[in-house]
Design brief:
Order of helices and strands: HHHHHHHH
Mean pLDDT: 80
Structural class: mainly alpha
Oligomer: single chain
Low-confidence stretches: 102-110
C-alpha cells in the first residue's frame, strides 16, 4: 500500500507526518471506546515520530460531545482573541518551545505572509455546513460524526489564527 500510493516520493517530513497521522488514526477507536490507556500510548508513540501529534490529546475533551456545544464556541472565541494578539502570543510561545526542544525556533518562522483566504474558506466548509444542520446532526448522536465535525472546527480555528500571520506553522 505504501509503495503503490506514491508516499515514497514525499520528503522525509511528509513521511514522518503521514506515519504519525496513521498512528493517530489507529488510536481514535480506542478513544471512542474510552480506553484512555491505549489511546494515550498510541498518541505518545505518534509523538516520538512527529512532536505535534501532541495536539490530539484534546480528543478526549470532545468524545460524547454534541457538535457546536459550548466548547466549540469557547474555542472559536479563544482563536479570535489569539489571532488578534498573535504577535504577543508568539513572543511567549517561541521561548517556551525552545526550552522544550533542542532545535532553536526562529521568530521569523512565524512572520510574513498570512495564509491564503481561499484555503481558510475551504477549511470552513464543514464547520459552516455543520452549523447550519447542527440540530439534525445532533439528533443522530453519532460519536464518530460528532468527533469528526468537532475536529474540523478545530482545524478551521487553526486557519483563522493563521490569517494574522505565521502561515508556515499552520499548513
Amino acid at each position: 500500500m505504501y509503495i503503490t500510493s506514491g508516499l515514497f516520493v514525499f520528503s522525509m517530513a511528509a513521511i514522518k507526518q503521514s506515519l504519525a497521522m496513521s498512528i493517530i488514526a489507529w488510536s481514535i477507536p480506542f478513544a471512542l471506546q474510552r480506553n484512555w490507556i491505549k489511546f494515550l500510548l498510541l498518541v505518545l508513540l505518534a509523538m516520538t515520530i512527529h512532536s505535534f501529534a501532541l495536539i490530539f490529546l484534546i480528543i478526549p475533551l470532545f468524545i460524547g460531545e454534541k457538535i457546536w456545544g459550548k466548547k466549540a464556541y469557547l474555542l472559536i472565541l479563544s482563536a479570535l482573541v489569539l489571532g488578534i494578539f498573535f504577535t504577543n502570543f508568539i513572543n511567549i510561545f517561541v521561548p517556551l518551545i525552545n526550552d522544550l526542544k533542542e532545535i532553536e525556533t526562529s521568530y521569523s518562522y512565524f512572520e510574513g505572509e498570512s495564509i491564503n483566504i481561499f484555503r481558510v474558506m475551504v477549511f470552513g466548509v464543514t464547520p459552516v455546513i455543520s452549523w447550519l444542520y447542527r440540530k439534525r446532526v445532533n439528533l443522530h448522536n453519532d460519536q464518530v460524526l460528532n468527533l469528526s465535525i468537532n475536529m474540523s472546527i478545530i482545524s478551521f480555528i487553526f486557519m483563522l489564527i493563521a490569517i494574522n500571520g505565521g502561515a508556515n506553522s499552520f499548513g
